[in-house]
Amino acid sequence: MGFLVFTMSFIFVIAFFLDFFEIAFIIIPLLTPAADKLGIDLIWFGVLICANIQTSFMHPPFGFALFYLRGIAPRTIKTSDIYWGAIPWIGTMVILVAIVIFWPGSVTYWLDRTTKIDPSKVKIEIQMPEMPPLNFK
User: Fold this and answer.
1) Which of 51, 11, 12, 17 has the alpha carbon at shortest distance from 31?
2) pLDDT of 48 strictly over 80
């Protein structure tokens, strides 16, 4: 539980400064092996991280969705109003992360864990197509 609280808090704070792509390509590859070694279901962990990362689009100072909204909003709406309007969204996302942490079955309930195909018995055969002879002159 401590790993999850630290990880989610870390991602939430780091999202203040990094965009989704930086988190996805730098931070997640560092966290996933540790989660796997701790026995955490990686599908559930991925959904949890994605739910947490959603906040990075909406919270200041680098919430890109806020910048997009600023670009289309009338000039009468202040940027601070847009930032304050994002707080309910951030709150709901924090609640969603808490729900996913404390009720993991909400993510993994419909997953079928049985293996239908034994990968060691898969045999791939590819027949070469008939090719005309090469004539080099």
Assistant:
1) 11
2) yes
pTM, to two decimals:
0.69
The residues, any chain, with a CB within 8 Å of residue 91's CB and separated by 6 or more, are none
Integer Cα distance of 20 and 24 in angstroms: 6
Instruction: Write out the H or E segment, with its range, that includes residue 90.
Output: helix 87-102
Retrieve residue 21's tokens. Answer: 């792509």
- What CA–CA distance (Å, rounded) separates 26 from 43? 18
Helix (H, G, I), strand (E, B) or coil at 53: helix
> Model confidence over 101-122: pLDDT tens digits?
888 888 888 877 776 777 788 8
Assign 14 to helix, strand or coil.
helix
Q: What is the Cα–Cα distance from 55 to 15, expressed in whole angstroms?
A: 8
